[in-house]
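Severity: low
Component: inverse-folding endpoint
Summary: output formatting inconsistent between runs
Steps to reproduce: submit the following structure tokens with default settings.
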């Protein structure tokens, strides 16, 4: 009798964890050191096993890759953005992995040049070629790209390992000379002073938390840098940026529940930062500087947000004045200020939305009446995403809008504020003879165990019927108030053309239906996230959209926690589970404040280190600790060796324990695949990313019996 490949068996080295009177024996915690030869050997053995178990899928992987490639315009360019005397844009070239960032002389700022993807704009200057920078490296990522206000200098940050720690270079754009390479190991966030002589940058601590802002004088030693702000509260992270008019460097500090914003005068960069409003527990706010006032989105009065204004020199929330209150079903997210209008970003009825607030007066000092009633930027399709695109100049008379849906490619258009005129600048091309009319989207609702109605988005081939026979893939995330909104994907077409019903469960813990939707899926309500997902799976079965034995589940990072916990709850609901960089050893990680992210995460999950109730609650859902000795679906866990957000340790331990505890068989294998030169987002080049997607989706399609294009489709 022929036998298949044998899975690696991880050695068990029992280690006891003791908290709140609970002793837990963990046999696989030893797999934590990514430099340990034994750990690396185990990961390589897992990779070899995964390759052997999927070798028969090589032709399908190649077909999927070819479909993505053939349908993508490989030589392309983005819509240029006017700033100063230049158009700024990026372009890609067939056969090259990374974008080339460019600029060209500005002609008429109200008229975007005709776009010919095969030709550079007249007078093009290459600012940064990602392909040249990536040469000789298996991984490459840009962590920042900033041009000084006078457009003479470029600062960019590069990571070539995947650990999201960046080395920064400053370049003279006239000569191409590298002016500075002193800043290394930085976090996200770069900001020039107004004259370009200083660069503000962010430092991270040993737990990968951005905790310091430094001021670096271009051309000097790193040792001469001046500390601008140190954040001592380990719950708080920081972000760094520049206001639209280049007048202010904006330092935003925030935990999961509390905010504080400081402004640095970019024209006087050595002056101390000014705090707009001292932090108050539970109050979140964002600040947008306008020329003569501040716009502030905040939750001081109610959790879904209000819009206020304050004097430009405000230092207290007592100076905030109401400007706009939300309507029922809305959640205010942020605001962008221009000279003659502001743009409010919000959620309305579960979808992203934009509203323009025209400014018709110039009171001195500023008064709320300077803005008139907001005007919605509306679209006809029922399910869509809309977002403000990059418009750099504060004096612009139009906004750039990005629109897409599950079945409509991304469109870039300008909306003239005074007239409402819409000018379509670019629509994402889809090649290969694809007829987009062959696809449809709709929303359905699943009923959670507590009666809550959970929205589920469906995408499929037009004419697909709920006859109980279709294969399906159910995706979920459900954490951090992140919303999984409609977006178009060329890669997804390969699933749809094989008859797959692609579904997204908008579970609690996300932000789709407002702040309460998030609050009902975090801390001691986290289990709602998992039961919502199982309810969505059951709904797909009961409504006939997906065959009971042909449904796969997919989730990544915190979504990996979701599918791991849902599999423990209902292993018979899924034929296969794809868990990408999964946060599955949740309790172990959140018990360790020395690990990246942990302390800040206590406001998301609770603090099990000090709270016995939180400990017991997390102990009851952490996927790694709740595996049952029953038959599980086939599982593919993917990870990256240099991931600093979710250590490879978690999926490595999880797969080892799944094999040891569950009643698995060769027919339902448990696989672990580790990218040995990548980070949290996987492989970095676009072709490499397509190959990774093709590898994973070939496995999914094989598990749900959908490897061939459905007759009459595609």
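Observed output (run 2 of 3):
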């Amino acid at each position: 009798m022929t036998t298949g490949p044998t899975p690696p068996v991880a050695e068990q080295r029992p280690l006891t964890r003791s908290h709140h009177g609970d002793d837990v024996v963990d046999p696989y915690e030893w797999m934590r050191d990514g430099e340990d030869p034994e750990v690396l050997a185990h990961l390589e053995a897992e990779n070899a096993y995964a390759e052997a178990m999927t070798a028969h899928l090589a032709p399908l992987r190649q077909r999927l890759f070819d479909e993505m490639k053939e349908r993508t315009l490989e030589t392309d360019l983005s819509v240029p953005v006017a700033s100063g005397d230049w158009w700024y844009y990026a372009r890609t070239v067939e056969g090259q992995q990374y974008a080339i960032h460019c600029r060209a002389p500005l002609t008429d700022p109200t008229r975007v040049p005709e776009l010919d993807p095969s030709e550079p704009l007249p007078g093009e200057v290459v600012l940064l070629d990602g392909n040249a920078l990536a040469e000789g490296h298996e991984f490459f990522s840009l962590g920042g790209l900033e041009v000084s206000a006078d457009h003479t200098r470029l600062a960019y940050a590069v990571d070539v390992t995947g650990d999201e720690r960046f080395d920064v270079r400053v370049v003279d754009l006239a000569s191409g000379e590298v002016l500075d390479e002193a800043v290394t190991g930085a976090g996200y966030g770069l900001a020039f002073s107004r004259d370009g002589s200083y660069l503000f940058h962010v430092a991270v601590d040993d737990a990968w938390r951005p905790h310091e802002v430094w001021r670096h004088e271009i051309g000097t030693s790193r040792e001469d840098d001046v500390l601008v702000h140190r954040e001592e509260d380990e719950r708080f992270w920081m972000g760094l940026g520049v206001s639209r008019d280049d007048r202010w460097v904006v330092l935003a500090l925030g935990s999961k529940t509390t905010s504080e914003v400081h402004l640095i005068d970019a024209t006087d960069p050595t002056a101390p930062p000014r705090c707009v409003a001292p932090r108050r527990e539970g109050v979140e706010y964002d600040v947008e500087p306008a020329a003569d006032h501040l716009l502030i989105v905040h939750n001081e009065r109610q959790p879904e947000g209000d819009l206020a204004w304050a004097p430009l020199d405000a230092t207290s929330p007592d100076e905030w004045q109401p400007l706009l209150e939300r309507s029922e079903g809305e959640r205010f997210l942020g605001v962008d200020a221009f000279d003659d209008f502001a743009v409010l970003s919000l959620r309305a009825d579960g979808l992203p939305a934009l509203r323009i607030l025209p400014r018709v007066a110039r009171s001195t000092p500023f008064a709320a009446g300077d803005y008139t009633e907001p005007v919605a930027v509306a679209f006809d399709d029922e399910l869509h995403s809309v977002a403000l695109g990059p418009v750099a100049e504060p004096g612009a008379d139009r906004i750039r809008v990005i629109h897409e849906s599950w079945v409509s490619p991304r469109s870039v258009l300008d909306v003239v504020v005074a007239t409402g005129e819409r000018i379509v600048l670019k629509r994402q091309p889809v090649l290969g003879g694809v007829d987009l009319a062959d696809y449809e989207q709709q929303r359905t609702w699943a009923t959670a165990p507590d009666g809550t109605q959970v929205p589920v988005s469906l995408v499929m081939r037009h004419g697909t019927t709920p006859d109980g026979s279709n294969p399906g893939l159910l995706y979920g995330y459900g954490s951090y108030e992140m919303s999984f909104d409609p977006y178009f994907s060329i890669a997804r077409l390969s699933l749809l053309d094989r008859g797959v019903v692609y579904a997204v469960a908008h579970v609690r813990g996300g932000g789709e239906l407002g702040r309460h939707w998030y609050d009902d899926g975090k801390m001691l309500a986290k289990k709602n996230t998992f039961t919502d997902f199982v309810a969505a799976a059951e709904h797909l079965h009961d409504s006939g959209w997906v065959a009971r034995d042909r449904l796969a589940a997919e989730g990544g990072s915190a979504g990996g926690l979701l599918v791991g916990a849902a599999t423990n709850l209902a292993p018979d609901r899924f034929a296969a589970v794809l868990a990408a960089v999964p946060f599955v050893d949740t309790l172990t990680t959140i018990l360790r404040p020395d690990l990246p992210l942990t302390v800040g995460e206590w406001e998301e999950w609770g603090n099990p280190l000090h709270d016995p109730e939180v400990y017991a609650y997390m102990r009851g859902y952490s996927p790694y600790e709740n595996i049952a000795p029953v038959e599980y679906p086939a599982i593919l866990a993917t990870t990256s060796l240099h991931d600093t957000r979710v250590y490879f340790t978690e999926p490595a331990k999880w797969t080892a324990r799944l094999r040891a505890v569950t009643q698995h068989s060769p027919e339902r294998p448990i696989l672990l695949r580790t990218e040995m030169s990548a980070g949290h987002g996987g492989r970095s080049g676009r072709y490499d990313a397509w190959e990774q997607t093709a590898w994973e989706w070939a496995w999914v399609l094989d598990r749900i019996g959908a490897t061939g294009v459905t007759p009459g489709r595609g």
